[in-house]
Amino acid sequence: MVDMDEMTSKETQERQWPAVTAVVATRDRLELLRRAVDAIIGQTYPGEIECVVVFDQSPVEESFAMEAERRSVRVMSNTRTPGLAGARNTGVLAARGELVAFCDDDDRWEPNKLERQVPAMDGFPVSVTGIVIEYGDHENVRVPRQAEFTLENLVRSRIMAAHPSSVVFRRDAVEGIGLVDEELPGSYGEDFDWMIRALQYGPVKVVEEPLVRVTWGQSMFAQKWQTIIEAIDYGLRKHRVFHEDKRALARLLGRRAFANAALGNRREAMRDAWQAFRASPAERRAYLAPAVASGLVSAETLMRMAHRRGRGI
Known about the structure:
Elements: H1 4-14, E1 20-26, H2 30-41, E2 49-55, E3 66-68, E4 71-77, H3 84-94, E5 99-102, E6 108-109, H4 113-121, E7 126-135, E8 138-142, H5 151-157, E9 168-170, H6 174-177, H7 190-201, E10 204-215, H8 225-238, H9 241-244, H10 246-263, H11 266-279, H12 285-293, H13 299-308
Parallel strand pairs: 1-2, 1-5, 2-4, 7-10
Antiparallel strand pairs: 3-4, 5-9, 6-10, 7-8, 7-9
């Protein structure tokens, strides 16, 4: 009689497990960073894992550096454009692994993330997984589906279930996809911009399991409304795909309307909301932004309501 556990163990030993570099960009959040790094180093993945921690506009904490069998942590300063995009690129360019992964400093991987995700890639240049969103006492499981992970759906809905902390990609794919865009205002939406280019480069493999725990409420972008507006305008100039799909265009115009409303720019908010409505009457932000601009409800209240449901504005 065949022992299935023994067979699985033998397959694990015989499989070729490519080296993985996990890039963690960070700034002044050492306690959260320690949790993220521990989850990376503690993976059940049989192959080599190096964690590259890039300190952006903050002192390098040498105590994180370590070397062990098949596990290491390297620490360095952001040597490129200040901000998240430059910090990520510093790590990507320093990576030694065949595969490169991202993890935000306030998130953490489930112990079996890489062990589940890497074999599933099987020729795909990029892979993502699902997530568990933690917002205070609330948890929401969000899992993208392979059939739904298309460029059309991405630009229409952003597919937040495919979080950057779940991304793994082949290092040589950077030649086709490009680095993270350091010209994006405030690095806002750099992951969205990169994923648009990734899907234009080739198909993305979705592992339909929640393998990352994402902490909401810690984002440095939470209420930087002017930066958000500038980044939306940048994206509209950069990507033709937003102008080729009215629902995608309406989503961005609706987000710009909401940001203007949160800033108290009533006239601009109403203008953007009307443009969003004209592009797609189904765009919900076309209705939320005027409510905020008129003082019927605050932007913060709507954001808290959305976050409790594991969603964003």
